[in-house]
Amino acid sequence: MIFDKIAPNRAVHKIENMKKIYLLAIVGITVMLASCGNGGQGELVGAYNRKFKNDRIPLGMVYIPPGHTPLGGSDEDITFSQNGPSRMTTISAFFMDQTEISNAEYRQFTNWVRDSIAIVMMGNPQQFMVTPKGNAAAALGGDKYIDWKKVGKNGVNIWRNKGKGASAAQASQLDGMYYSGLDALPGKKELDVRKFEYSYAELNMDKAAIGHKDPNSKRQDYIDRYSVAIYPDTMVWKTDYSYSQNDPMVRGYYNHPSYDDYPVVGVSWEQAKAFSHWRTRLYDGVATSRKQPVGSRSDYRLPAETEFEYAARGGNTKTKYPWGGPYIRNTKGCLQANFKPGRGDYSSDGGIYTVGVKSYFPNDYGLYNMAGNVSEWTITAYNKGASPLLHDLNPNFTYDAGAGDSKYKKRKVVKGGSWKDTGYFLQNAVATYEYQDTQRSYIGFRCVSSYPGTDLRR
Prior knowledge:
- It is a single chain.
- This protein is about 25% helix and about 10% strand.
- It has helices spanning about 1-40, 105-120, 135-140, 150, 170, 205-210, 235-240, 245-250, 270-290, 305-310; strands at about 60-65, 65-70, 85-90, 95, 195-205, 225-230, 300, 375-380, 410-415, 430-435, 445, 450.
- Among the domains are: about 65-100 and about 300-455, Alpha-Beta Complex (paralog of FGE (formylglycine-generating enzyme)); about 105-180, no CATH class.
- It has 10 helices and 12 strands.
């Protein structure tokens, strides 16, 4: 009788033990499967980024392959400067704008800044803002973003008082953007372009390299913040030349449709750098919406002096000019760039001032006007004594001068020669300088973007 009472209890315990064994077995299998899925059965398999096509050349750019070549003086040094001795140099791959930045391209930047300021002054009206839904709203965390599709091409929906445009009440809030009082011409309503400022911040790698191991330093110590008035100085056509009738260029060069595809001028090194930052952010916004990895394209920037010379040579060695030959005319006797061929002669080359950004034949890399038309800013600081100290791999010398620095520290290398220069300045190895806060009627720029890899062709 006692046995009959105990037996059922033992059976119950046996069943419970079997359940525990099954449960442990399931947990063990789950752990093993997780290990196989994420850990490669205990092996090191790496944590890879999301794959994407890395062989796309940015719009309007050309690919400059990596290589080594002698850079520096390859012909006479008529100024006896001896500041560009020839030396073997290796340059990494990068993308470069096929042409100088045009008036139309730079105007996209100034319009973007203009419209951003206008929307803020109107109080961020909802008809111009992104309207997130669901999880997207939480992800924004209360931040507001402009929907540029709602703004319209060239800001058309902001600056008209009908249809989808700003209301009369909203438009009245923009009165502060116009010249007023005695600053305004009778019968004209003109925007005060002095108020077009672009603010941004960037990490200063030079400062970070010096102090990043200091335990008392903070990241903010290496962040430079800027606020740059970005509208081109159109008065350079007047101030650069004494007793010269250039008033029509002052009034029309930047905004007249005839000059849309001409190189932008009157832009300082600081403004060109601000443009490069904006261009990077412009692309990053689209890349993020397409769910591409962060930094899928390297930042846009100004080229180093050595990058500019390397690209100008077009893959050729010890060439004097970007077109490869030792002469400034081709076999037909035609001048191959826009410059000043002789005293008082600005027209023999086909242009008087600047010409279109795709004028003349490109070099062997497909780059236009790497000599002549306009000189171009580089990121490199001008220092005659720096050349012997530079590395032979991607050499460059940089210094970001502050407002209180000496003017000599504000000099930046300018390459290529311009429409007003003689043929000497068109040589690949020749460089001059201008101050970073100065605008000229003969200096423009183009951007580069480093290629994230060894060689696109492999």
